[in-house]
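Build the 3D complex.
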Amino acid sequence: MKNNMITALDIGSSFVRVLIAKTAKDNSLEVLGSSEVPSSGIEKGIVKDIEAVSECVKKALQEAEKASGLKAVNIFTNITGEHIRSNVGDGRISIPSESPNEPGEISQDHVDQVINDAKNGIKILKGYERATILHGIPQSFVIDGQDDIHNPVKMNGFHLITKVYTIFGDITPLRNLAKCIELAGYDIDPDNFVLNHIAVSEAVLTEDEKRLGTVLIDIGGGTCDISLFRKGVLEKVMVVPMAGSAITEDLAIGLKTTISSAEYIKKEYGNAYAASVDPNVEIEVDGISGRESHSRTQYLVSHVIQHRVEEMLSLCYDKLKNCYTPELVTAGIVLTGGTARLQQIDRVVESAFNMHTKIARPNVSRLTGLVGSLDDPAWATAVGLLYHVAALDRELKTSSFSLGKIKNNKIFDSIKKIIKDFTTA
Ligand SMILES: Nc1ncnc2c1ncn2[C@@H]1O[C@H](COP(=O)(O)OP(=O)(O)OP(=O)(O)O)[C@@H](O)[C@H]1O
Ligand SMILES: [Mg+2]
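Done.
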């Protein structure tokens, strides 16, 4: 890796965040510069205005360069969106040996081969022609019928079989994201795109959580990125195209105010659990474009928020329900991302899923230098990108290795109803 430098570029729907860091021999990472700029031109993980995104990327990278006094090199960025797909494929190879009845020794090359065999087996299926492989995650290995082998390197066998969970992204959104970075005047290697879910998990989950079973949800501005971990590996990823921006938009509609005022009210007074809010507290709300300001109760604000949060969770549940058994997700739910800062969101998630819910901030114990603001759920992706890349680099160097009821488009009507109930009461 160039001068041991890593630039983590988190291109989100609400913010672009950058960390420039240097890897040290003791596995720690020294953060030399960071930046956070509001993003524009990207919605639900997808580039909608290439010039606008590239301007934000340029500003964020330049600010981080200024803070660190270094050039942003070795850029790694996150990717998400509804185009993310995944599938499980089987790979199988024979292990060569000196005699036909003697099992051969399995090398790292054999492991790479069998993983590639599984990944390519899916890639050739119909429907994946315009998709590119982002990650291939072996679930387990089987050597001559012995299953649950964690690391087959140096073991002996005639045949090596694996199941690989393969994650794809469509080529078009990837190309457009790469173009934003190039238009900003920087280079990105096509292999340097990391699925947002994977980056986030590296920052916030412990090995115990991965092993015992966890549903991780990164609730940002545009998407809920859901990951299911069991037995230490990533089993499933899902994307729900709805998050904090939808809450803000509901408030703007419901309170008849601007998006910026709704965003302020959400962060300052918002609570995802309306029943816990004092019904007598009034909030001054700005009118739109010079119209008179008016007052609304904090209870109404929280009611609108809770309604959208439940809608969002219902979509998450719809995605998850066929692929997890709550009893097997022993560690429960972990929430991160900017919207995890919303007061009492964990309480609403906990009661909706009937599972223990924790809000997670990135683990910054491996970081030195300018770590100040990073102990915050909104920084999970950027910190996770650093850990992910540092781990890849080490591998290379060592060369081993009551939901479901609310339906989507009814939200507008229900917000109107809530507002009506409150204003006519
Ligand atoms: N204190 C807070 N209370 C409620 N919401 C908050 C708070 N702080 C931030 N948010 C919300 O978090 C969202 C931004 O989160 P984040 O920075 O993780 O998003 P992003 O990474 O840019 O978006 P995405 O990951 O969806 O592409 C915004 O909708 C913002 O309003
Ligand atoms: Mg994000």
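The two ends are 64 Å apart (CA to CA).
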